[in-house]
């Protein structure tokens, strides 16, 4: 019996119609894709580009659906990236280079690398989503960002069908930002990502929560596996598991302000959590700002603010994308009203 992914099956018969997206977005929001196709490699993407109908159709690329808010049904063709594969590409004196298919779960890659005895990704454990989505928003946690471990990626151009390899400079990484959120948005499909885990390994423990674990456990020199376990424990205690409560991680970016703005806010709210940035600017904890406006635990319709971390919006069971957006706007307005700061959402609103 040929499966839908068998290359012998004509491409058109692999295109599904009227597909519910509820299970395909970590918020669990209701939406329907007019058409959906699952791609396993660059050849599949090229077949879409060259196809008389799908080549011209509007397209949306979806990875693990962990950074998207669906407010409507999706017209045209939704491309669900399911490129498999995890391997160590090479090891040299300076680093281990890993390669992963864009459809693999990010956490599976991190856990696999630790199992292989390759340290470097442990601070990025348990971040929801796929490998292919990781560079799109330059995921980061506990002092490490994807760009710090990035080697290169392969991307298929949705106009020409050509596969191109991009390095970190071409990806234009910023804080939760990259070229894929800007001029390559909707124009390219990431199929494979290569990561560089540098030697010698040193644990990255600068973040307050990890420093606390070090003190609590008395382990002054943890190995990568221990840091991995600490990060998993910290995240499980503070962030909701999308399999249990729908969410998309941090809903807003931490805003960056000038030192003058920061001083002004500290003058009025001495408690405000702030971190100096290398360029002299100040990053404020958006979770603290939202919390200070009294939003923790509040809801609008089925959309709510998580009780343990105000930066995370959750689906209390029956939320629509519209309710999530209404809640986000109300939060933005109250933070602007009190602090004069405009919070910028992290997920993509469709
Ligand atoms: N805080 C509050 N009240 C809250 C939430 C936070 O007072 O309701 C305070 C905390 O006490 C802490 C500060 O705000 O002093 C910062 O909070 P936390 O350490 O939890 O980190 P964050 O700024 O909320 C960022 C990333 C997370 C990442 C963590 C750990 C962003 C937008 N978020 O969160 O990334 O896991 O640091 O490094 O940069 C994500 O992007 O989806 C994500 C989860």
Q: Structural class of the secondary structure composition? A: alpha+beta
| Relative helix content | 10-25%
Please state the average pLDDT score.
94
CATH architecture of the largest domain: 2-Layer Sandwich
Shape: globular
Query: Helix-strand pattern, N to C?
Result: EEHEEEEEHEEEEHEHHEEHEEHEEEHE
Radius of gyration: 21 Å
Residue stretches low in confidence (pLDDT < 50, at least 5 long) are none
Bound molecules: uridine-diphosphate-2(N-acetylglucosaminyl) butyric acid
Strand content: 25-35%
Largest sheet: 5 strands, antiparallel
| Total beta strand runs | 20
Topology:
Elements: E1 16-20, E2 32-39, H1 42-50, E3 59-62, E4 68-69, E5 74-81, E6 86-91, E7 95-101, H2 106-115, E8 140-141, E9 144-145, E10 150-157, E11 163-166, H3 168-171, E12 188-198, H4 208-217, H5 224-238, E13 246-250, E14 256-257, H6 259-268, E15 274-276, E16 282-284, H7 286-292, E17 299-300, E18 303-305, E19 312-315, H8 321-339, E20 348-349
Parallel strand pairs: 2-5, 3-5, 4-20
Antiparallel strand pairs: 1-2, 6-7, 7-12, 8-9, 10-11, 10-12, 13-19, 14-16, 15-16, 17-18, 18-19
Uridine-diphosphate-2(N-acetylglucosaminyl) butyric acid (EPU) is lined by residues 141-142, 207, 249-250, 253-254, 273, 285, 287-288, 291, 296, 309-311, 346.
């Amino acid at each position: 019996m040929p499966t839908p992914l068998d290359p012998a099956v004509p491409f058109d018969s692999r295109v599904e119609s009227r597909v519910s997206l509820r299970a395909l977005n970590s918020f669990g929001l209701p939406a329907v894709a007019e058409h959906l196709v699952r791609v396993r490699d660059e050849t599949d993407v090229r077949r879409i580009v060259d196809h008389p109908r799908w080549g011209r159709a509007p397209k949306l690329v979806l990875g693990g659906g962990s950074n998207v808010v669906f407010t409507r049904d999706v017209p045209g063709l939704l491309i669900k990236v399911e490129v498999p594969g995890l391997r160590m590409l090479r090891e040299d004196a300076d680093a281990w280079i890993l390669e992963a298919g864009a459809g693999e779960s990010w956490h599976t890659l991190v856990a696999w690398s630790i199992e292989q005895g390759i340290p470097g990704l442990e601070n990025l454990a348990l971040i929801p989503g796929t490998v292919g989505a990781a560079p799109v928003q330059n995921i980061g946690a506990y002092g490490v960002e994807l760009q710090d471990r990035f080697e290169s990626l392969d991307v298929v151009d949705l106009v020409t069908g050509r596969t191109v390899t991009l390095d970190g400079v071409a990806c234009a990484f910023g804080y939760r930002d990259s070229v894929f959120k800007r001029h390559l948005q909707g124009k390219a499909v990431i199929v494979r990502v290569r990561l560089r885990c540098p030697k010698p390994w040193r644990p990255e423990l600068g973040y307050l929560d990890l420093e606390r674990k070090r003190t609590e456990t008395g382990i002054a020199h943890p190995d990568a596996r221990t840091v991995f376990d600490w990060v998993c424990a910290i995240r499980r205690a503070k962030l909701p598991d999308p399999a249990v409560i729908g969410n998309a991680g941090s809903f807003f970016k931490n805003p960056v302000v000038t030192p003058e703005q920061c001083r002004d806010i500290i003058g009025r709210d001495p408690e405000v959590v702030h971190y100096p940035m290398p360029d002299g600017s100040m990053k404020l904890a958006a979770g603290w700002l939202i919390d200070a406006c009294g939003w923790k635990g509040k809801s609008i319709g089925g959309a709510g603010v998580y009780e343990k971390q105000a930066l995370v919006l959750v689906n209390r069971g029956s939320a629509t994308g519209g309710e999530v957006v209404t809640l986000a706007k109300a939060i933005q307005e109250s933070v602007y009203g009190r602090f004069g700061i405009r919070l910028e959402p992290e997920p993509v609103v469709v």
